[in-house]
Q: What sequence folds into this?
């Protein structure tokens, strides 16, 4: 059977995922897309090998078995709630918003839906999830980004923090995953993914420090548990279209989608 996939959001991530699906992935088929600029998205998909409709966000469930959410975090409920209430599956990139909308998990359970959170721009979620089957005592995360990678973050605007003219590293935030998700909804979903992999209750220290000389989005995690102690670091190349996200994020979604239908699934 072929799994019908809809893409919610047609920006830097959504376009890449949709293009790969249109080129052909065994067991998967692009069924629809949704975009803020419907006319522009319509022109783009018209050039696909198999053009698909551009549908309203809240009705994507009518076209697909699974919806990949690549939209702004504020729109999460608008697309996820009707889909999960009808037993559809949703792959969420705005997992930071999920921390404040955790009732969606119960909604999925009640109606037979399912929520997937891909690794995105982070590494080590397999190890964290495995360690959480035992006892995790601490999880720390340090995020460093070029100044433009944090531009427009609500936390910076609310606290009048200007990162555009920095000449040296500056710690601009320290707090929990939930606080980070609220203050940086388009920048540090990796922190929320890390919390969800281990436990939504784990306190994660996030230091979002823009470094002028840095050209990549850097995430380092340090975990202490009764099964293992490990630290991992990844340096992501920012997307040319949107420097707040890395190129790896879209590729992570594609890999996660392939895993759903492949006869061989590697990783926890």
A:
């Amino acid at each position: 059977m072929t799994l019908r996939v809809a893409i919610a959001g047609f920006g830097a991530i959504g376009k890449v995922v949709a293009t790969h699906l249109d080129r052909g992935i065994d067991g998967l088929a692009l069924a629809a897309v949704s975009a803020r600029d419907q006319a522009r998205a319509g022109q783009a998909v018209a050039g696909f090998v198999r053009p698909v409709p551009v549908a309203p966000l809240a009705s994507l469930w009518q076209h697909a078995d699974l919806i990949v959410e690549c939209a702004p975090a504020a729109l999460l409920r608008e697309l996820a709630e009707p889909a999960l209430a009808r037993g559809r599956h949703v792959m969420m990139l705005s997992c930071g918003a999920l921390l404040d909308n955790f009732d969606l998990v119960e909604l999925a359970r009640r109606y037979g839906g399912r929520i997937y959170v891909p690794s995105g721009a982070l590494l080590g979620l397999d190890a964290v999830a495995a360690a959480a089957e035992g006892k995790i005592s601490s999880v720390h995360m340090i995020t460093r980004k070029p100044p433009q990678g944090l531009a427009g973050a609500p936390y910076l605007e609310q606290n009048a923090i200007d990162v555009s003219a920095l000449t040296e590293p500056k710690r601009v935030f320290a707090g929990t995953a939930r606080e980070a998700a609220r203050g940086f909804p388009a920048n540090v979903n990796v922190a929320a993914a890390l919390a969800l992999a281990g436990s939504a209750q784990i306190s994660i220290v996030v230091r979002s420090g823009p470094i002028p000389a840095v050209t990549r989005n850097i995430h380092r995690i340090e975990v202490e548990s009764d099964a293992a102690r490990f630290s991992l670091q990844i340096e992501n190349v920012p997307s040319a279209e949107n420097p707040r996200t890395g190129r790896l994020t879209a590729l992570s979604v594609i890999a996660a989608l392939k895993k759903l239908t492949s006869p061989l699934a590697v990783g926890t």
